[in-house]
Specification:
Layout (H helix, E strand, L loop, with lengths): L1 H8 L4 E2 H12 L8 H13 L3 E6 L7 E6 L1 H12 L10 H12 L4 H25 L5 H32 L1
Antiparallel strand pairs: 1-3, 2-3
Helix pairs in contact: 2-3, 5-6, 6-7
Length: 172
């Protein structure tokens, strides 16, 4: 949450609730909605680390609000974030660990485990399809997010198929 908030503040000063609304509008309903408490805790940490600075602004009919702006250190951290590639391919995969350890237990059928995981992925794919149909068409970002998630799921389904083929071949 830290770096996305810095990215939103790069365009100009904003208060916490405004940042929450901007994230929701940008990412749509496919992305987990940020909790306002989480946003304010993160803003407080960003301020303590010198990446943003806050200023209280008086309001006549409401309590004062705190407006945050990016510092030079925040701009530098943001630039570094955009420069770095994201995570490498997943090697530490919890499902694969289950699959690898299943024979050690003597109680878990690996093919059954694969089938259960396949059903889970197919249900997730169905849910994403519904979400894509319900998402507003005026913003491509949420659609691209959903499409990316579906492509990852398809790759996971293909990988499950490969695992099942290998295990069945091993059993012959």
């Amino acid at each position: 949450m830290r770096l996305p908030l810095l990215a939103l503040l790069a365009r100009g000063p904003a208060h916490g609730y405004e940042l929450k609304q901007d994230l929701e509008k940008l990412l749509g309903s496919a992305y987990p909605q940020p909790n306002i408490g989480q946003i304010y805790v993160t803003l407080n940490r960003l301020q303590k680390s010198g990446l943003i600075e806050g200023e209280d602004v008086a309001q006549s009919t409401r309590p004062n609000k705190r407006i945050y702006r990016l510092t030079d250190a925040g701009r530098e951290a943001l630039a570094l974030w955009f420069e770095e590639p994201t995570d490498e391919p997943r090697v530490r995969d919890e499902f694969f660990m289950k699959l690898a350890l299943a024979p050690q237990t003597g109680d878990v059928d690996q093919i059954g485990l694969i089938n259960k995981q396949r059903r889970h992925y197919l249900n997730a794919m169905r849910d994403l399809s519904k979400l894509a149909a319900a998402e507003e068409r005026d913003s491509r970002i949420p659609q691209l997010l959903i499409e990316g998630a579906m492509l990852h799921l398809q790759a996971d389904l293909d990988w499950l198929e490969r695992c099942q083929e290998e295990l069945e071949e091993e059993q012959r």
